[in-house]
TrEMBL record:
Residues 7-124 form the VOC domain. Transmembrane segments: none annotated. This is Drug:proton antiporter. The lineage of its organism: Bacteria, Pseudomonadati, Pseudomonadota, Alphaproteobacteria, Hyphomicrobiales. Gene3D superfamilies: 2,3-Dihydroxybiphenyl 1,2-Dioxygenase, domain 1. Coiled coil: none annotated. InterPro entries: Glyas_Bleomycin-R_OHBP_Dase, VOC_core. It comes from the Bacteria.
Amino acid sequence: MTQALTGAPYTLLYTDDVSRNAAKLERFFGFAPVEYTPGFALFFFGEGRLGLWKLDAVEPRVKVRPGACEFALSLDGGPAAVDAAAARAFDAQMTILQEPTEMDFGYTFVAALDDGNRIRMFARSQASA
């Protein structure tokens, strides 16, 4: 018998500076984390969660530096919503790694936090929707 997994999905990004990166994300997202300590910050997105966890507090210890993964969020509103998100990322002093562009899955951009963690926003193309 197979039992379905339930619960909200979490994405955890390891960071050297929770405070600085949480402040950038708060400015970018337009809302504060629902939980905040110097070692952890948590943002809610519908049924999903994005956490920033202080790198040297993660157990078991991390053997690689941040930046090898990304948090991606599908946006309603098409390319205009992606362009607006890219402008907010720039205003929040995030590093733009990929300007808004059309890719096979949709219109997207990628920004990075100070430690290299990536945030991707995209509007799915009609072909992939």
